[in-house]
Design goal:
By secondary structure, the chain is mainly beta. It is about 5% helix and about 60% strand. It has one domain: Porin. It is built from two helices and 13 strands, in the order E-E-E-E-E-E-E-E-E-E-H-E-E-H-E. The mean pLDDT is about 95.
Length: about 220
């Protein structure tokens, strides 16, 4: 839900680039759940010399490839896991422990188009692999406003899907179209709104733990330095 804060590319002449934001979001109590929860959304995103970054959205990583049009490299993220007490539908299931994830990301810009892909491996807990791939197009609405229209697919390995959906089959778990609207303000400020709707597929759709659809919405107010 923090991705809208980094949806728009921006440049800085300083060695350090800082993006700070706060917001609120609504999403499922767990992945593809039937119940919702409201969460606070703090975004802290710091990058040094367009290479090294630490972010509550992107994780801790390194732009190994940085050609201006392509960004790619390794990163470490964190999955908070889930507990059966998070939702009534999880009663009787095993808790999924929190774990650091080692991954690799790829991001390509081509005119108004943006393509992305990443893989993440859980270093502990279920030790599964999850991934995402997508495409989006940026559409300027005015001098200071842009609308991004995109779609993503999310993948789970056998271990990941068994832990989350009690079905150990590898496959695509959802297709998710989304909209992100960003309005630039004075002195580096901005506001962003993001909405996503997931069509749950494959084994994730056949389990009693999952609804047939997932959704999330978020609102951020931030400033770039």
């Amino acid at each position: 839900m923090l991705s809208v804060g980094n949806a728009m590319r921006w440049r800085s002449d300083n060695a350090w680039k800082v993006n700070l934001a706060v917001g609120v979001g609504v999403a499922g109590t767990y992945q593809y759940s039937r119940d919702d929860k409201v969460v606070a959304l703090p975004l802290i995103d710091v990058e040094w010399r367009n290479r090294y970054f630490f972010s509550t959205q992107r994780g801790l990583g390194f732009n190994w490839i940085n050609s201006g049009q392509t960004l790619a490299g390794p990163r470490i993220t964190y999955d908070w896991g889930r507990k059966q007490g998070d939702d009534a539908f999880l009663a009787g299931t095993d808790d999924i422990g929190a774990t650091a994830e080692l991954g690799f990301f790829w991001l390509r810009y081509s005119g108004p188009w943006r393509l992305n892909a990443d893989l993440k491996y859980a270093l502990s807990s279920h030790k599964g692999i999850r991934g995402a791939f997508g495409v989006a197009r940026g559409n300027p609405l005015s001098e200071n406003s842009s609308l991004f229209v995109g779609i993503e697919g999310h993948y789970g390995s056998k271990k990941y899907n068994y832990a989350h959906f009690e079905d150990g089959a590898t496959g695509i778990n959802d297709v998710t179209p989304y909209l992100s609207l960003i309005r630039n303000l004075r002195n580096g400020g901005y506001v962003g709104v993001d909405g996503r709707f997931s069509f749950v597929l494959g084994r994730a759709d056949t389990t009693n733990l999952s609804a047939s659809y997932g959704h999330s919405a978020s609102f951020l107010v931030g400033r770039r330095f």
